[in-house]
Amino acid sequence: MEIIKTIVDFRKVRLSLTEPVGLVPTMGYLHEGHMSLIRQAKMDNSSVVVSIFVNPMQFGADEDLDRYPRNMERDLSQLQKEGVDAVFVPSTAEMYPIHFSSRVEVDNITQRLEGASRPEHFRGVTTVIAKLFNIIQPTRAYFGQKDIQQAIVICKMVADLNMNLIIITLPTVREPDGLALSSRNSYLNRRERKAARVLYQSLMLAKKLWQEGERDAKTLHWEMVRLIRKEPLAAIDYISIADTKTLMEREEVKLPTLVSLAVKIGKTRLIDNVILE
Amino acid sequence: MEIIKTIVDFRKVRLSLTEPVGLVPTMGYLHEGHMSLIRQAKMDNSSVVVSIFVNPMQFGADEDLDRYPRNMERDLSQLQKEGVDAVFVPSTAEMYPIHFSSRVEVDNITQRLEGASRPEHFRGVTTVIAKLFNIIQPTRAYFGQKDIQQAIVICKMVADLNMNLIIITLPTVREPDGLALSSRNSYLNRRERKAARVLYQSLMLAKKLWQEGERDAKTLHWEMVRLIRKEPLAAIDYISIADTKTLMEREEVKLPTLVSLAVKIGKTRLIDNVILE
User: Fold this and answer.
1) Residue B98 to residues A2, A104, B93, B95, B101: CA-CA distances in angstroms?
2) Closest Cα partner for A198 from A226, A160, A157?
3) I want to staple A169 with a disulfide (CB 3.0 to 4.6 A). Which of A121, A151, A253, B222 is the partner?
4) Which long-range contacts (CB under 8 A, 24 or more apart) does B58-66 make?
5) How far is B188 from chain A, CA to nearest CA, in Å?
6) Taking residues A187-212, what's their average pLDDT?
7) Is B213 left (phi over 0), alpha (psi -120 to 50) or beta?
């Protein structure tokens, strides 16, 4: 497994990778969610590249960039075991040299949900992902459904800017009690970890109500709010019942509908979603 | 010579082009300036692609999009003669389908000179050029020095976003009296055409003063203004004496310095520049 720190070195290694090439972009601190992406990438492609880069541009000034969990040694040993061909681990200075002043923006869908709470977040995501695509030149790139808006925004960027690759989104991997795997789960203490189940529980409640025939988005919304408010450690950031493409809020639940939410458990902000389809 | 109208078709043709591939992006109405780019591209590469697309996104609402000169038949016959391998001539709907909502932005240097007069111009340029690079995937792309800020902005975008190609900028091709070739010269009537010589004359005046030892940017500036004001059909939009990289205005003329200007001759806005080096 090649471990590559610079763009110049990656371009050389890239020439030796057999096509097609799958890319799994990550911020490290890998969990089974990442592993499911890597395993699918291995099945679909002749070579697999994983990038590990905690991207400062997608963190707000008051967000958790500094305390975002990192464990490069463990990550690399896991990737080695999975048979990954190359790992790209650039420094911040390598990705954002002095006088860096370009960006890729997707309008409209980036303003809703996560974008409403984190106004410059997706600009950071699209810019770094465009850079990674240009450096790594993958045939396919893999993203998890947990960050569904990110996947939708990236698909829009790829389509609008005619980037020549395929985006694949894979299902969220969950703990036995339903909590979506996330590197940020490591922030949770024991009480918070237990409280965090309420995200998935509220999504399952919405799904159940819908299956029982409820079509009013407001009703789903308020039933989710009611459930989450029973959990004293939880504070709702948003709950959204929206069109899966435009991310515009729905009044009536038609298929497919994205039910998504962001909830603070103590100081930790968690997100999750299900698609009704 | 293949003439290709859709992105899907171009992707197919691209597979048959031998590497390296040179791209000359144009808005059509081709002149000897374009031809000099194409001839250099032919010398440097095994295949040459020319794109012809009058990009609405880089025109302001009150600019000359509708009257921008077009002559597709003549353009294609010229390209055929030059031995171009493929011409990409997409429609506006092909490049900007409904709900298109992405853009590539370069900050800072896009705010000066042309960007000060045409605030959304470079966003249109960088977005369409990023799209063309992703569709055509050239090894090298060729731009003329006449639009020097465009070339500088594109180089910055390519560097910042790690686009995997080489940008080549070639000298401005001029009429015998010095007027830089431009598709917009076709707007000029006989009197205006004569008046338009003042752009190059003022640049040559600045160069001469510099060669004679003048190092004060303000003096160069005002001597240029004085000369241009003698031409009753000319109205200065800007004159700039700036750093060639940052495009920040200089007080003292150090090498290299970019002397550039935009002047309206009647209703036609023309630009030109020289580099003192």
Assistant:
1) 43, 19, 8, 10, 9
2) A226
3) A151
4) B58/B120, B58/B121, B58/B122, B58/B123, B58/B124, B58/B125, B58/B128, B59/B121, B59/B124, B60/B118, B60/B119, B60/B120, B60/B121, B63/B118, B64/B184, B64/B187
5) 36
6) 98
7) left
**For the segment B191-246, what is each residue's pLDDT rounded down to a tens digit?**
999 999 999 999 999 999 999 999 999 999 999 999 999 999 999 999 999 999 99
- Is any Cβ of chain B less than 8 angstroms from the Cβ of A107? yes
**Are B104 and A104 within 8 A, CB to CB?**
yes
Q: What phi-psi label fits residue A87: left (phi over 0), alpha (psi between -120 and 50 degrees) or beta?
A: beta
Residue A4 near chain B (CB below 8 Å): no
Asked whether B28 and B117 are in contact (CB, 8 A), the reply is no
Q: State the ipTM, two decimals.
A: 0.96
Q: What is the pLDDT of residues B120-163, one digit of tens each?
A: 999 999 999 999 999 999 999 999 999 999 999 999 999 999 99
Kindly tell me if the per-residue pLDDT of A119 is higher than 90: no
Q: Which amino acid is at B156?
A: K
pLDDT of the residue at B256: 95
Q: Chain B contacts of A137, Cβ < 8 Å? A: 164
Q: Which residues contact B28 (CB under 8 A, 6 or more apart)?
A: B52, B53, B54, B70, B71, B72, B75, B183
Q: Is the CB of B104 less than 8 angstroms away from the CB of A102?
A: yes
Task: Flag if B156 and A127 touch (Cβ within 8 Å).
Answer: no
Q: What is the mean pLDDT of residues B2-30?
A: 98
- Kindly determine whether residue A161 and residue B106, on different chains, have CB atoms separated by under 8 Å: no
Residue A215's pLDDT band (cuts 50, 70, 90): very high
B89 vs A: CB within 8 A: no
Count contacts between A and B (CB, < 8 Å): 73
* pLDDT tens digit sequence for B67-83: 999 999 999 999 999 99
Which of A8, A127, A162 to probe by mutation at the B interface, max B CB count within 10 Å?
A162
Please give the residue of chain B at the shortest CA–CA distance from A6.
B162
Domains of chain B with CATH codes:
2-170 (3.40.50.620), 183-272 (3.30.1300.10)
